[in-house]
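RESIDUES AND SHAPES:
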Amino acid sequence: MAETPNQWTSAIDTTRPSIARAYDVVLNGKDNFEVDRAFVAEIVKVVPEIYDVATYNRQILGRGVRFLVEQGVTQFIDLGSGLPTVENTHHVAQRANPESRVVYVDNDPMVLAHGRALLAENDRTAVVTSDLRDPKTILADKDVRRLIDFDRPVGVMLVGILHHLHDDEDPRGIVQAYMDAVPSGSYLFITHFCASSEDSREAEKKFLALLGTGRFRTEAEITGFFDGFELLEPGVVALPLWRPEGPVPSELTVGQRLMYGGIARKR
């Protein structure tokens, strides 16, 4: 039986903020509710630059995907992808190489509803509704298997999502499970909230209190996700410093240092 829009929306919880919808708010999107906007308003009190932080994250996604296509990668698994917006992974990848294939994975039902509509005429892209904490199920998914050839290099993307996994959920083990499934020559692309200032630590308290997730890890902890892989230059750095395409201030603001990221290659 075909799914209907009503089936999609009936699963949406509008009584509490959602990760995907809150990110949509700070990207100035329209697919969010008052509860999401109220949550972001509380974060703004601690980190006034939070809207800019979302922009920095979106910009590194574009730079990172273009870099991976330049390395010959034409297939991507975007885990915890969030709601479709401008310059999604498939836009960037397919502009650089029209043969690129992209699978988006998110557990928010709104992502499925909007993603399917957006991608209805793009047979090289799919949306899978699943929880990234279950690699086995995701890696066996029929759309993942249809689009991703696990004998060829894959770009495994965890952009702005690992900080929503608690330490007791074994985020490093989850990362390893995905990387174990892809061949040598594949890449791991991570961005993550960083405990880089007193403001960031206050922001973590707000995230945990209001959203239930949002772990601001240290630079060393974020770098630890890349253990066992070849971390590429410039390493794990504040987002504006990762292979910038324009001038970068000599001194970064709190917002510019709120997220760190990097890309590593599986040997």
Observations:
- Residues 9-265 form a domain with the Rossmann fold fold (CATH 3.40.50.150).
